[in-house]
Amino acid sequence: MLVQHLLETSASQRPEKIALVCGGQRLAYRELNAAANRLAHALREAGVQRGDRVTILLESSIEAAIAIFGTLKAGGVFMALHPGTKHDKLAYLLKDAEPAALITDGIRMKEAADVVATYPSLRCIVLASGSTQLQSSDGLNVLSWDELDRYSDKPLLSESKSSDLAALVYTSGSTGQPKGVMSTHGNMLSVTNSVNAYLHNTSDDVILNVLPLAFGYGLYQLLLAFQVGARVVLEKSFAFPARVISILEQEQVTALPAVPTFFSLLFKYPDLLKRGFPSLRYLTNAGAALSTGYIEQIRATFPDATLYSMYGQTECQRVSYLPPEELDRRPSSVGIAIPNTEVFIVGEDGERVGPGEVGELVTRGPHVMQGYWRAPELTAQRFRDAPTPEQRMLYTGDLFKIDEEGFLYFVARKDDIIKSRGEKISPREVENVVCQLEGVAEAAVVGMPDDVLGQAVRLVVVLDQAAPLTERDVRAHCARNLEDYMLPKYVEIVPELPRTPNGKIDKMAIVDRRWTMDDRR
What we know:
Elements: H1 4-13, E1 18-22, E2 25-28, H2 29-45, E3 53-57, H3 62-73, E4 77-81, H4 87-97, E5 101-104, H5 106-116, E6 124-127, E7 141-144, E8 165-170, E9 180-184, H6 185-199, E10 206-209, H7 216-228, E11 231-234, H8 241-250, E12 255-258, H9 260-266, E13 282-285, H10 292-301, E14 306-311, E15 320-321, E16 336-337, E17 342-346, E18 359-364, H11 376-382, E19 383-384, E20 393-402, E21 408-413, E22 418-420, E23 423-425, H12 427-435, E24 440-450, E25 454-463, H13 471-481, E26 490-493, H14 507-511
Parallel strand pairs: 1-11, 3-4, 3-5, 5-6, 6-7, 10-11, 12-13, 13-14, 25-26
Antiparallel strand pairs: 1-2, 8-9, 14-15, 15-16, 17-18, 18-20, 19-20, 20-21, 22-23, 24-25
């Protein structure tokens, strides 16, 4: 089975069921499948072959979804990039992936025209909207979206296999240049099967996706929905809570995947949340852990909805989930392995450690991706062979503990651990303590180079609206609740924290001062 078969099966079984909603557009499964077929024919005619990469540089939209499935139907490998990708980074990604086609819009094409012109691998450019001065020439086809109507809406004969690559998903690059994670059709279907198994999605579900399709968490909402014939409502951003609340009501949304940033923004508008959302069946959180305070707020705001805390990485998409019935007993746990996978923890000697001991989390199963694109040395560091190919192992680089019953607890990234005064400090532990102080909305902790300490703890805090806290208050709270060696040397209260395009806190921006801060030494 291939990823595009998820769409094709639902189109066959529920042709008139609405599959996608975005803005004023509503597309049935039959229409979406036909549009993807037309794009596939256009790409194939332009020279895109099995295994060729196709770069998708679009906002979350119906066109972006069509581009993903059209690429797969043509036998290609899609790489969906964040629409805000900057010029230099785009140049690097195109050079790295050598795509045969680019699907974008006129505005982004104008910004990228000089980059595109330097890559002879490109054989086709499809513009979803707008126009460009770029014209078709020998070896390069330039098509507008309207021109796709002249192509057949019948499916192409596919030569792809489940072991073929389906996607290149690039990491955020917070610790260096972005790396392309290679995902096969089999990998992606394994994740989809496992996640749907514990979320219990059905054709009656309506999933509101406010996350970028370039972000694995956002991308998989399409796959989860299309596997069961559900509906996805695409919203380009969660920056406007009133709009999100309106969509929840109008579309009778049953599922809301989110990240802590979204919840933080939502809770700044309590008046919008008094309406009640009886249709909402569940919420999921991934990308970063929720504090205990946020968990309590979410459950109070959406009392009839089930909350799933999850943990994953781009390299395998999902590792674990916390069964909702365990949330009261283990609010700080990220749960157990997703179905059809295994997790364990190893020490520095590579041997498995027991309950309560800290070590590196390892996961294995068919969800583990194939490695990093054209980076065999990096691949060898993180991915290891197991007895059978479908049981490939991923060494996550994250430090965890596991309890007697097999529940996982995140400790820190291996490279996030702060060594100060000869002691190891977990940023997450300090952050959790700080977030227990009433009036603190978010906190980020990083290690800063220090001639005396080795590393000094730097704490950056965002307050709830109108919270009357000072830096002295934060320091006093830390002194009351943290051991001496864990106390932050630097404390700063700021309006907001820097973010990556995926909404995660960009700690590297704090460390290397790309983000303006007052040191207050």
